[in-house]
Amino acid sequence: MRWIWIDKFVEFKSGESAVAVKNVTLAEEHLHDHFPGFAVMPECLCIEAMAQTAGILAGEAKNFEQKVILAKIKKAVFFDYVRPGDTLHIHAGIESISNEAASTTGRIMCGDKVIAEIDLMFSHIDQNLAGKHFPEENFVFTDTFKSLLQGSVFSSRRITESGK
Amino acid sequence: MAMGREQVLQQVQEVLVDALGVDDDEVTEQATLMGDLGAESIDFLDIVFRLEKAFGIKIPREELFPAETLMNNPEFVNNGKLTERGLAELRDKMPHTDISAFEKDPDINKLGDLFTVGTIVNFVESKLKAA
Amino acid sequence: MGIITICWTMRFILIDRVIELDSGRRLKAVKNVSLAEEYLADHFPTFPVLPGVLLLEGLIESASWLVREHEDFAHSMVLLEQARNVKYKSFLVPGGQIEYTVDAGTIEENVSSFVGAGVSDGEKIVEARFGLRHFNLADKDPAMAAVDAKVIENMKTRWKLLRG
Fold first, then answer.
1. Could you tell me which of A30, A84, A160, B114 has the fewest CB atoms within 10 Å of its CB?
2. What does the radius of gyration of chain B's CA atoms come to, in whole angstroms?
């Protein structure tokens, strides 16, 4: 299992909003446990798909210099469940952003159906988690995440400039 | 934006209920953010964003919740208590709060008690007047 | 026959054992964190920590078992309906063990509400307020009754494993 819950970005407005796509496939191992007999994408992984979409949006807004960590799920409400064969569109927008944190809102769509509404808070942990031990280098924005932006239609210039 | 104190209090209460998941009746003016309402670091950030949105004002986090920068600075804290410099800094950063009781025993663990719902209302009111 | 699925891949079960049960009211479960958990390789390569949404999943699973046991496995589907104020207070690292405690607010026929927290080594890691919904696929499509039955059988088997 690779911890990457979005497949590509189809829209990216730096500092504002983004739309990512996730295809749900029976090849995903965890679906066979949730539940054995009838596969449903776990809601927590839908939240993670939003966290990755919104987290990359918030990270890119600060040039990937901050370690952007999910600190609080303000609200996550689900209206329907997700099945193998579904294609999800994850819409995320930055509501507020400062040096210490970012607040995002968003919804997950499957076609015309609203699957979920998810509002998150990210902490830029260098500015916040005094006393907790974590590495100095930016361990959050790995090449795997940044490659989602590279090569997409909306390739961000900043990725290549920062060289991180 | 001319807003009476009652109105400001009501909006602040709404913000705190949403941000902290507490009940309406828990959010009294005297309720302390950290002690009574269970707020912590990430909640302060959430509260600041929501207040900015609700009142259309800009709030540098430090201005509303200066405790953290105070507590981490060795010039301001000695042996678990705020020094004279620390107290002066606190007075400067929190003009909207009466710290006379705290000054008698400036234990940093009690710093949280200063942050009440009323403190936030005072702060928002002063920001709105200045705007 | 055919109930036990041979599975050579990582399983999607975010609690290891149920250690306390007060039927319909409170459940406690523990999870050990091992460096062998696949997603840790990506989250994060230089700083492996249990993803926040999987901490939430530990709480969701704990609460789901409270529901299933209390309603005597009446429903196949037990899903997250909403989560609010989910706060992440510290990191959970490999070698650590987390103890989840969920307390039921209400458990009705198709919905339930909970308050939950996870503690590791005396430190609070996660807390959340959330609600579940429970139903059978046959409620909408009677032809699905056999699928419901299969899921329920599998979950009963899993409960025996977790309860020890």
1. A160
2. 15
User: Are the beta carbons of A128 and B65 closer than 8 angstroms?
Assistant: no
- Sheet hosting strand C123-135, strand order edge to edge: A8-13, A17-23, A87-97, A101-110, A113-124, A68-78, C77-88, C123-135, C111-120, C97-107, C26-32, C17-22
Which domains does chain C possess?
17-163 (3.10.129.10)
Q: How confident is the model at residue C3 (pLDDT cuts 50, 70, 90)?
A: low
Which CATH number applies to A8-151? 3.10.129.10
Domain with B52, as residue range(s), is 1-58+115-131
**Per-residue pLDDT, A157:** 43
Predicted complex ipTM: 0.94
Residue range B36-63, pLDDT digits in tens: 998 888 898 899 999 999 999 988 877 7
Average pLDDT over residues A125-133: 65
CA distances from C17 to B9, B62, C20, C27 (A): 46, 44, 9, 11
Within 8 A of A121 by CB-CB distance, chain B residues are: 42, 45-46, 49
C72-82 pLDDT tens trace? 999 999 999 99
CB contact under 8 A, B49 and A130: no
